[in-house]
Amino acid sequence: xxxxxxxxxxxxxxxxxxxxxxxxxxxxxxxxxxxxxxxxxxxxxxxxxxxxxxxxxxxxxxxxxxxxxxxxxxxxxxxxxxxxxxxxxxxxxxxxxxxxxxxxxxxxxxxxxxxxxxxxxxxxxxxxxxxxxxxxxxxxxxxxxxxxxxxxxxxxxxxxxxxxxxxxxxxxxxxxxxxxxxxxxxxxxxxxxxxxxxxxxxxxxxxxxxxxxxxxxxxxxxxxxxxx
Length: 228
Fold this sequence. Notes:
The protein has one helix spanning 2-23, and strands at 48-54, 60-66, 69-76, 80-83, 92-98, 104-109, 118-123, 126-129, 139-144, 150-154, 161-166, 169-172, 182-189, 194-201, 204-214, 219-222. The protein is globular and about 50 Å long. The protein contains one helix and 16 strands. The strands form four sheets. Strands 1-2-3-4 form a four-stranded antiparallel sheet, with no helix packed on it. A four-stranded antiparallel sheet has the order 5-6-7-8, with no helix packed on it. A four-stranded antiparallel sheet has the order 9-10-11-12, with no helix packed on it. A hairpin with a 5-residue loop joins β1 and β2 (60-66). With 228 residues, it is mainly beta. Residues 1-24 have low confidence and may be disordered. Helices cover 10% and strands 44% of the residues. The longest helix has 22 residues, at 2-23.
């Protein structure tokens, strides 16, 4: 009886709320400022999808996770989700960024966690590895701007450094800030050629540094921290 009593009370409460909502004047209603879309998956057997970026024009990117691998994708409101091909020898991939021309960049790896990672670009649905700087064997691409200049990082651990992929070559960001802080990885680039990412202060390795690098002016500066 107690359970039924709780159910009846809950029903009455919900009904009261619904009646109250129904009587609220329409003048108080507001137009939603956004809509949420389910990206979905490519194959019914896929375990999950994850979104990691979206262009100004609405091209969303991310990865699908399935048994034995992961696959990069693009998604648009009109076209839905489209799987992108994996790089040969790499059964895991993620697309991290797209520009409005449909150029997509990301990372190809041998495991879901990024082992043996390589920076890649998809153009017209065809995947290719972005060129690494001389002597480097690892890298990733995190962002691409309207000029198809991509940024990310190369190497790993204490040797990891921010990198730029442009014009058929890869270069390490060597410019430091006024305090000699250097880029560890670049997370974004805008159409003006400003790169943002994470750096390290060589005088205090425990201090993570937000860094901006201006390609045109070859200048780097710290973002700074919020108070306290």
